[in-house]
Amino acid sequence: MNKLTERMLRAAKLDPHLYEEVETDTTAMNQAMLVVVLSSVAAGIGSVGMIGRPNLILITLGALIGWYIWAFMTYWIGTKLLPEKETQTTYGQMLRTIGFSSTPGILRVLGIIPFLTNLVFMATGIWMLVAMIIAVRQALDYQSTARAVGVCAIGWLIQLLFMGILFALMAGSMHTQI
């Protein structure tokens, strides 16, 4: 089994040691980015029943932008706003760990099955959130899972706000062109 597949399986199993491993492996950035791309493409394919024919390029770019924003906000919140005494990390370490926490999202491709779409997206969303909490806890060297939950919640709200603004601007731009 190749290294990426093995890492993705460990990420899906919520293995905290995997997140420590990719945190310190500077060569894992491309792998983390590939996981985010695969997860977002799977979401695009799986959402066909909900949104019609998706624009996979736009969905993938949106996911990559969201990954960068969320990782940066999580990094900033975790190191500046809510650090613990042992907290030491870099933005790159946060990108790698959060990237791998997107692994369960690859199963969103199963959302293409009409009667499973909502269930698949809800289950994988929860799974990805739990994986991200573990990834953040490991990357920030937290002793407290509750603190990692707080960092993820604050980062999610900020990322949601940024993405809402981005999509509103894109929609406004498209509307004025019509």
Give the % helix.
over 70%
Based on secondary structure, the structural category is: mainly alpha
The averaged pLDDT comes out at 88
Poorly predicted tracts of residues:
none
Q: What is the first-to-last residue Cα distance? A: 50 Å
Structure, explained:
The chain has 178 residues and is mostly helical. Helices cover 75% and strands 0% of the residues. It contains eight helices and no strands. Helix 2 (16-24) crosses helix 6 and helix 2 (16-24) crosses helix 7. The longest helix is centred in the last third of the chain and has 33 residues, at 145-177. The radius of gyration is 16 Å and the shape is globular. The model has no long low-confidence stretch (mean pLDDT 88).
Give a quick rundown of the structure.
With 178 residues, the protein is mainly alpha-helical. 75% of the residues lie in helices and 0% in strands.
Brief descriptors of the model:
mainly alpha; 0% strand
Write the topology of this structure:
Layout: H1 3-12, H2 16-24, H3 29-46, H4 48-51, H5 56-81, H6 91-100, H7 117-139, H8 145-177
Helix pairs in contact: 2-6, 2-7, 3-5, 3-6, 5-6, 5-8, 6-7, 7-8
